[in-house]
Design a protein that fits this description.
alpha/beta, 6 helices, 135 residues
């Protein structure tokens, strides 16, 4: 299943001590495919560097870049569907370009997407996605 992980969801899933770690493992082991763009990787790097330090940020980014279950996209069109936090649009644009099944997020700014007919973007909360992959 193709997914886009909001930054906070990525951060919550990478630690082996996290209840959500199986989401990260599902990408590494090929059960799910993570879809990213350069803008998303830059945000991941910035936030991971700030929260966990440069070494951890580099390890996570290298794991993403080298993982065979990561697909890289360059969205050429900006839909600008989220006005409350325009920075979130990079995830939406990537999801649309990638034809992703879901954006995995707990951020309420994405809720506006539930009311947009086109382009349709699937949303799922972190816990719901974890329950889905445990199916």
């Amino acid at each position: 299943m193709r997914i886009v992980l909001d930054t906070n969801c990525l951060i919550q899933s990478i630690s082996p001590k996290s209840a959500y770690h199986d989401i990260w493992l599902s990408i590494l082991n090929g059960k799910n495919t993570l879809c990213v763009s350069n803008e998303i990787l830059e945000e991941y790097a910035e936030i991971l560097n700030r929260l966990a330090g440069e070494t951890t940020a580099n390890l996570v980014l290298n794991a993403i870049i080298e993982c065979r279950n990561v697909m890289f996209f360059t969205p050429y069109y900006r839909f600008n569907l989220i006005s409350a936090d325009p920075d979130d649009n990079k995830f939406v644009d990537c999801a649309i370009q990638a034809n992703a099944h879901y954006i995995v997020t707990n951020d309420h700014h994405y809720d506006v997407l539930r009311h947009i007919e086109f382009p349709k973007v699937g949303l799922i909360k972190l816990m719901d996605f974890l329950l889905m992959i445990h199916g």
